Each structure stands twice: as structure tokens, then as C-alpha cells.
Amino acid sequence: MPTFKTVRGMRDLLPDDADMLTFVMGKARETASLYGYREVITPVIEPYELLSAKSGEEIRQRMFTFKDMGNRTVGLRPEFTSSIARLATTALKTEPKPIRTFSVGSVYRYDEPQRGRYREFFQSDFELIGTSNTEADAEIILLTDRLMRAVGLRNYAFKLGHVGVIRGILSEENVDEKTQNAVLQRMDKKEFDEAFKLIKNNECLSTLRGSLELKTDDVFQTAERIKSHVEGYCKAAESADELKSLLTLLTEGGCPVKSVEPAFARGLEYYTGMIFEVYIPELDIALGGGGRYDKLIELFGGESTPATGVAHGLDRIMLAMQMQNAAPMKERKKRVAVVPVTEALKGEALKVSQLLREAGILVELEVMGRKMNRALEDADRRKVDYAVIVGERELKHNAVVLRNLAKREQNVVEISRLSKTIMS
């Protein structure tokens, strides 16, 4: 018989990792609730045209695509935003603005597997649709700040930029959108020399090169230097003003913005405004990121609708938690093993198990047919707190034997008092 392994880039989450993922997902849902975001669940498989429309060339090349049985080209979602934009043009079209949506689940990209990067991974996604106001951008970043704190991370910091600065320069120098996208793709990968080779206009090239020298340790000073640097480029200057306004709101909200990057870009083509990522010092990959996308919903056939959003990499957050020893604090519930003394008492053991579960106690019924001593040894090995031994003699008095496995003590307890005794 062959030995099967997981497909490369996929992995099994064993109980401890699954518990941690469930914990992080729970904190994301808790954050969504606190900020008024309502959960929507969208298909894992979407039309290729939807997923590829403005995702960016790199992501298009890394999508899992295939023909379905109707000969339609479909793909596994590489992120959530395109699906939410589709909803905004259909089922959510008449919802009052702003629309706040939350999604959580698996996404797929054919990346080279490495630490913190898988081909199937998990994201939580927050989208705020219907307003172009800066406070909406601030909210998306502040809820990310809240999630980082909620999972116990320390010393995380935000990096901010505004794609409108670079696009503003390129647009006013009549650089076509396809070239703009190619420039931003290379800048996203820090391939600045390759990006600048695509620019033929010397003045535009000089302005872009100069933007690399604007960063300072003071985020407000950097924003001011960006505005001065792009003087004469109206749209780029407006973007710099928006960045300053956002910084002011975030500072007032107590959010740790560590840097403003004048040449910051992200891989998705649909961004039109502010962009951001969040990091911890121990890890050189972003734990999450997002930005403003004011033209995507219109591209999918809806009305012109501004929007902003963020996706958090839950696998990366888990990795960051492990690196910082930020283990989730879980309520420790008592675990009980229920063991019938004889085969004939299996039904009675099942009744006792159900009674304890109704009281919220975690119960593992002996289902392996082991003798009592072996069953008790197994429960002790797995660090179960109590064993409930269901014997014929005790049942005549509506009682069972309750054994404290850690203390090696046992008593006869009436079944009516069993739950209370275990919980005390």
C-alpha cells in the first residue's frame, strides 16, 4: 500500500495548532463584532475573470485555476476582496452605507513554500464599503491594532504609504496604466532598478528616484517631505495630504505607526489610496495588510463606490505568537473518563456521560473495550482529571466511583451530585 503525504504547500493542523488557529479566528470574530462588521461566507471557487480582474500579474500567475465540468475557467480564491466586491454589486447592492463585512477562511496561492508561507493559508478579512473619508482608513488600521493586542502580540508596528503618490506622478507624466502596474509590482518587491528601467521620462524618473531618499525616523516629517517632493504633481500632493491626515487620526487613536514609506507598494493592482502592513521585529514578513480601493466595485459593474479593507494572515499571526511565546490563555475545563466495569454496563456508562456533558463537562467514554485497569492507565497517561467508574454494586444505590487521577483518591458519589462534585 502507498504512503500518502500532503500535497506540497498544504499541511495538516494537528490538535495544538488547530486550537491556536481557532483561538485566533475567535479573536478576529470578536474584533469584527466590536467594530460592527458582520460575517459573510463566500465560495472558495469563483470565476477566473472575477479573481483575475485587478489582482496583479504576480497573483494571477500564482492562482490555482482549472476548467470545471461545464468547461468554465474557475479558480480557488487567492484573497477575499474580489468576492466582497462582487457581493457589493449584487446581494449587498441596496444595503445602507457604509457596509462593513467580515470573512474568515482558507485562501490559495501557488507560492514557493517557506516559513510563514503556504499554498493553502488562512485569512481574516475586513471590508468597509461606501465612504472615502479618512476615518474609514483609520478604522481599518485601528481594528488591526486591536486584533494584534487581542492575540497577545508585542512590539508590533505599522508601515504606511499611499499608492496615489506614485500613481499621481506617473499619471501626470502620461505613463499608461499597464506600465504603472508593472512599476508598482517591481517596487513592491524592492526591485527599484528594474522598476525605473520602465520609465522613459527623465523628469518622472528623477522624481521617483528621489522619493527613495525621503524617509526619516519621524513619520510626520516624512509625510511633509513627500508633499514637498511632489510639489507640482496635484494628485500626488493630494495623496500626501491624505497620508498626513491619516497619521494624525492614528496618532490620536494610539496606534503604533513606525514608518511612512514614500516608495511603498503592494502587489494588488486595485489599490488607489493608502496602503499599510503590520510587522513584528522577529519576523520579516507582514502579518497583515490592506488599503483603499475606490474603483474595484465599479469595475465589476456596480456604481462608483469607495472602499477600504485589510486581510490578516492568520498562519503568520500564529507563527508570531509562537516566536513571542504568546500562547493563548484557555479556560481549563475538567476532563473526565467514564469507564464501565463490565460490557453489560455500557448503556449505563453512556447515560452518565450524557449527564455530565449536559453540565458542560468534557467526557471521554471508554470505547476501546479495555479492562478497567488498562482504561484507567490510559486516562492517566492522557492527563485526564477524573475517572468515573460505573459498577453494578454502586448503581444499585444510584451512585458511581469518582477517582481523582492526580491525587490517586476515590470516593463513591451519588449520580445526582456527580457534576457538582467534579466542578467543585
How would you characterize the overall build of this protein?
By secondary structure, the chain is an alpha+beta fold. The protein has 2 domains: 15-323, Bira Bifunctional Protein, Domain 2 (BirA Bifunctional Protein, domain 2, 2-Layer Sandwich); 335-423, Anticodon-binding domain (Rossmann fold, 3-Layer(aba) Sandwich). The chain has 17 helices and 16 strands. The protein has helices at 15-35, 48-52, 57-61, 81-89, 134-150, 163-172, 177-188, 192-196, 202-211, 219-229, 234-252, 296-299, 314-323, 346-358, 372-381, 392-395, 415-423; strands at residues 38-39, 45-47, 65-67, 73-76, 99-108, 120-129, 157-162, 257-260, 274-280, 283-292, 307-313, 335-340, 362-365, 386-390, 399-404, 409-414. The strands form 3 sheets. The chain has an 8-stranded mixed beta sheet with strand order 1-5-6-11-10-9-7-8, with helices on both faces. It has a 5-stranded mixed beta sheet with strand order 13-12-14-15-16, with helices on both faces. Strands 2-4-3 form a 3-stranded antiparallel beta sheet. Helix 1 packs antiparallel against helix 5 and helix 6 runs antiparallel to helix 11. The mean pLDDT is 93.
Topology:
Blueprint lengths: L14 H21 L2 E2 L5 E3 H5 L4 H5 L3 E3 L5 E4 L4 H9 L9 E10 L11 E10 L4 H17 L6 E6 H10 L4 H12 L3 H5 L5 H10 L7 H11 L4 H19 L4 E4 L13 E7 L2 E10 L3 H4 L7 E7 H10 L11 E6 L5 H13 L3 E4 L6 H10 L4 E5 L1 H4 L3 E6 L4 E6 H9 L1
Parallel strand pairs: 1-5, 7-8, 12-13, 12-14
Antiparallel strand pairs: 2-4, 3-4, 5-6, 6-11, 7-9, 9-10, 10-11, 14-15, 15-16
